[in-house]
Amino acid sequence: MSFALGVALLAVVTAVTCALPGTYVVLRRSSMLVDAISHAVLPGIVLGYLLTRDLDSPVLILGAALAGMLVVLGAEWLGRTGLLTGDAPQGLIFPALFSIGVILVTLNAANVHLDTHAVLVGDLNLAAWDQLEIAGLALGPRYLYLMLGMLVLNAVVLALLHRTLTLTTFDPVFARTIGIRSGLVNAVFMLLVALTVTAAYNAAGAILVIALVVIPPATARLLTDRLPVMLGFAAGIAAAGALAGFWLAYVLDAATSAGMATFYGLAFGVVLLATRLRRREGREMVRNARASTPGAPSRGLRRLS
Amino acid sequence: MSDLAAGVWDTAAVATGVLAELPSLAQVWGNHTYRMVVLGTTTIGLVAGALGSFAYLRRQSLISDVISHAALPGTLVVFLAAVALGLDGRNMGGLIAGAIVVGTLAVLAANAIERLTVLRIDAAMAIVLATFFGVGMLLMRIVTNGDFPGKGGIQDYLFGNASTITRADLATSLTVGGVALAIMLVYWREFALRTFDPDLAATLGMRTRLVDTLMFTTIVIATVIGVKAVGLVLMVAFVVTPPAAARQWTQSLPAMVALAGAIGAVGSALGAYLSIALGTVPTGPVIVLTLFAILLLSLLASPRRSVLLRAARRRRARRALQAELTREVRAHEARAQRVAEQRVPEQRVPEQRVPEQGAQP
C-alpha cells in the first residue's frame, strides 16, 4: 500500500468513525460538548503517559476518554445545581482541565516529549507514519487498524443502542415513562463519543475533531428528516469530504485535518444555500402558478370555500 | 508509577521552594516584563469579565470560544495583507481589528445558521468554530512555510504568551477595551432590556438586530484582546468564569457586571503574580485555574446560593418533616389504640358469652 493511499484511507475511516455518533450528537444538542471533551483529552493523555511512559499505550486512550467523561459529568452536575445558566457549565470545566494539562507538560518538559501543538492540531501524515508489516507485506498504517476497530465498536454499540438512543433523543419524557434509564444511556453514549474523540485526535487533532463529528451530520440534517437516511448521508459526506480535504491539503501543503475541516465547512455552506434557494424557488413556483390561472381563488379563500 | 510520583514530588518541591522565596510586590513592579504581564492580564480580565456577563445572561457563553477560534484567521489575514502591502505585520491595532471583524462575522454566521435552518445554536457554533479554525490553520501553514518578515511569534496566538506583552500592546488593549466598555455604558438600557426580555425589546420598537450586533461586538472585543496573551483555547474561561462566579453573589445586573469585572481583574492579577513566582509555568493556565478556584469558592460559600448551605438546609428541612411525620404517626397510633381500648369491652361481650353458651347444654 502506498503511503498516500494509506493516509487517504485513514482520513476516510476516521471521518466515518466520527460521523456515526456525531449524528446523535447533533440531534441531542451536545455539539459544543465535543469541543469540551476534545480539550479535556490533553491532561488525560499526559497523566496516562506519566503512568506508562509509552505514547502508544492504550492506557492513554482510556485516560483521555475518562478525562472527557469528567467534563461531561462535571458539566451535568454543575447544570443540575441550578446555580449556572445556559451553556456556561461546559465552558467552565474544560479550560481548567486543559490548563492542568498544559502546566503538567511544562513542569515535566524534561520527561514528557509531548508537543501540545501536535495534540491540538494533529497530523494525519505523522499518524500514518508507523506502517504495519506482516511477513514483508506492507498493510498500510498501523493507526488505520486502530481506527477500523473504533469504527466497528461504534457501529456495534450504536446498533445495540439504536432504539433506546432514538427514544431518549426525540422523546425523553416518554422514554423515562416506559422505564428507560436515560441518565445511564446518556453516560454510555457520551463515553463512546469520548473514546471516538480520543482515538481520532491523533489524526485530526483535538480541535478539528469537532469538525468531523459535527459538520457532516449537520449537513445531512439539512437534506433529510429521517434518522436512517441522515446516518447514511452523514457517512457519505464524511467519506467524500475526507478525500476532497485530503486533496486540498496535499495541494496547499497544509495539515490534512485543516484541509478537511475547511472543506466540510464549505460543503455545509453550499448545501445550506442550495436548500434555501430550492425552497424559495418552490414558493415562487406556487405563486406563479396561482398568478397564471386568472380567477383562481387565493389560498385563504380556497380554504374557506 | 514512580515517574508520576517523581513528577508530583518535583512539582511539590518546586512549589515549596517558590513559596519560601516569593518575590515581593515591589520586585514584580520593578521588572518591566513582570509589570506588563500583570497590567496586561488585569486589563484583559476586567474587560472580559464585565462584558462576559451579557453572554452569560443570554445563555450563549460558549460563543466566546467560537470568537477566539475565529480570531485566528482574522489576525492572519491582516498579517498577510499588511506584509503584502509592505507594512509592519505585527501592528497590534491592525491584528486586533482583523480579529474583531472576523470574530463578529463568525457570531453573525452562527446566529444566521440557527435562524435559517433546523439546526440548534450548539451545532451552529460548532460548525462555525471548526470551519474558521480550519481556515486559520491553513493560513498558519502558509505563514510558517513562507518567508515573511516578523512572522516569529505568530504561533503565540494558539497558546498565548503573556511575557510578550509590550507597552504598545497594553495601550491598544486599554483603548479597545475602553471603547467596548463605553459602548456598554452608553447602550446600557438597550443591552439590559434585550438580555432579560427580548420580546418586549422587539415590541417596544427597539432595533433588535442592531442592538444584538453591538452587544456581540463588545463580547468579540472582550474575547480578542486577550488572545495574544492567553491563547485562543483558554480565552473562553476569561469570559465565562468571572460572570458565573459573580452571579452567585449578586442579584442585579449593575452589581453583577461590576463584580464580574472585579473578579476578572483580581483573579488575573493574582494568577499572573503566581505564575511569575512559580517561574517556569505559563501565565494563562495559572490564571484560568485561579479563576476556577474563585468560582468553586463562590459556588460553595455564597450566602444565598451556596451548595453547602443548601444541602444543610435541605437536610434540616428533611429532618423537620420526618419529625413531624413521626409525631403524626405516633398521635395516630395513640388515637387508634384509645379507640381500640374503648371497643375492647364491646368485643369481649360475645367472647364471654361463647363459653356460657357452650356450658349451658
From TrEMBL, chain A:
Any one GO cellular component localisation term in the record: ATP-binding cassette (ABC) transporter complex
Entry's transmembrane regions: 59-79, 91-110, 143-161, 173-193, 199-218, 230-252, 258-277
Family: Belongs to the ABC-3 integral membrane protein family.
PANTHER family registered for this protein in UniProt: ABC-TRANSPORTER METAL-BINDING PROTEIN (PTHR30477), METAL TRANSPORT SYSTEM MEMBRANE PROTEIN CT_070-RELATED (PTHR30477:SF8)
Cleaved signal peptide residues: none
Keyword list, A-Z: Cell membrane, Membrane, Transmembrane, Transmembrane helix, Transport
Organism encoding this protein: Serinibacter salmoneus
Membrane topology: Multi-pass membrane protein
Name of the featured protein: Manganese/zinc/iron transport system permease protein
InterPro entries named in the record: ABC_BtuC-like (IPR037294), ABC_TroCD (IPR001626)
Any single GO BP term: transmembrane transport
Domain of life: Bacteria
Annotated segments matching region Disordered: 284-305
Subcellular location: Cell membrane
Principal place of residence: membrane
Gene3D superfamilies the UniProt entry points to: ABC transporter involved in vitamin B12 uptake, BtuC
From TrEMBL, chain B:
InterPro entries (alphabetical): ABC_BtuC-like (IPR037294), ABC_TroCD (IPR001626)
Coiled coil: none
Any one GO BP annotation for this protein: response to zinc ion
Gene3D superfamilies tied to this protein: ABC transporter involved in vitamin B12 uptake, BtuC
Membrane topology field: Multi-pass membrane protein
Primary location group: membrane
Alphabetical list of CDD domains matching this protein: TM_ABC_iron-siderophores_like
Subcellular location: Cell membrane
Biased composition (Basic and acidic residues): 331-354
Superkingdom classification of source: Bacteria
Keyword list, A-Z: Cell membrane, Membrane, Transmembrane, Transmembrane helix, Transport
Pfam families documented for this protein: ABC-3 (PF00950)
Spans traversing the lipid bilayer: 36-57, 69-87, 93-113, 125-143, 214-241, 253-276, 282-301
GO cellular component: ATP-binding cassette (ABC) transporter complex
Region described as Disordered: spans on this chain: 331-361
Homology family: Belongs to the ABC-3 integral membrane protein family.
Name of this protein: Manganese/zinc/iron transport system permease protein
Organism: Serinibacter salmoneus
Organism ancestry: Bacteria, Bacillati, Actinomycetota, Actinomycetes, Micrococcales
